[in-house]
Amino acid sequence: MNAPLNSDDFSLFSGVVFDLDGTLIDTLPDILAALNRVMSEEGLRQIDYEEGRTFVGGGAHNLIEKAFAAIGANADDPRIDPAFDRFIRYYEEEPAIRSTFFPGIEDCLAAFSDAGVKMGICTNKPIGLTRQIIGEMKIADYFGEAVLGGDSLPVRKPDAAHLKEVIRLMDVPLDKTVMIGDSETDVGAARNAGLPVIAVDFGYTALAPEKIGADVLISSFFDLPAALRQVAAYS
């Protein structure tokens, strides 16, 4: 039985920035459907869920590079760029058919909204796909314009400028904001921007979750109120 969410805990910060893949939404089933369509066309083996969850976080081109590396191809393999183009096309066709919210996240988004907390998304996924997914998952209104993808700026996570620009769009103080993510890329961005960071342990990361360096690690979004209290205590 999950403990009820305490609304008071959701007003401890003025703003919260989320990663997308592996944090807000389990997008990997749709990512793998597009990726494995490409792999099949190339006569290559399929990538399974546990393997694929270690490939996400560095952007779509990096995903393709890692998938090809998994079958023994090197980074300058001439098939990678055409494979990336086809992957994006296939993924745009079906970006959210198989994707689901992680348990508790919808309640948390509503709680932050009810508390008047501004929310943003900082992801290395292309911005067009990001907007398409949060629109189809019907959560776009929570974030407004404070959504930036990996191609929105000349830099991307873990560069602090990516995260700071999301916070600027949220119009909240940097020192009253917390980052929530799932990978070393998210932790790096938060550290570079001087933000506290909470990480989930069920997301997509090549490192063990306890090794990515977050201030607090949670196993469920129903644990988020306690985590917010913990980071607020020393922020």
Describe the protein:
The chain is an alpha/beta fold and 235 residues long. The chain has two domains: 156 residues, HAD superfamily/HAD-like (Rossmann fold); 66 residues, DNA polymerase, domain 1. Helix content is 40%, strand content 11%. The chain contains nine helices and eight strands. Strand 4, helix 6 and strand 5 form a beta-alpha-beta unit. The radius of gyration is 17 Å and the shape is globular.
CATH superfamily of the largest domain: HAD superfamily/HAD-like
CA radius of gyration:
17 Å
Uncertain regions spanning at least 5 consecutive residues: none
Number of strands: 8
Question: Can you tell me the number of structural domains?
Answer: 2
Biggest sheet statistics: 6 strands, parallel
Q: Kindly name the structural category.
A: alpha/beta
The pLDDT mean sits at 93
End-to-end Cα distance:
30 Å
Strand percent estimate: 5-15%
In helices, the fraction of residues equals 40-55%
Q: Identify the overall geometry.
A: globular
CATH 2nd-level architecture of the largest domain = 3-Layer(aba) Sandwich
What order do the SSEs take from the amino end to the carboxyl end, as H and E? EEHHHHEHEHEHEHEEH
At CATH level 3, the topology of the largest domain is: Rossmann fold
Walk across the major sheet and give the strand order: 5-4-1-6-7-8
CATH class of the largest domain: Alpha Beta
User: How many alpha or pi helices?
Assistant: 9
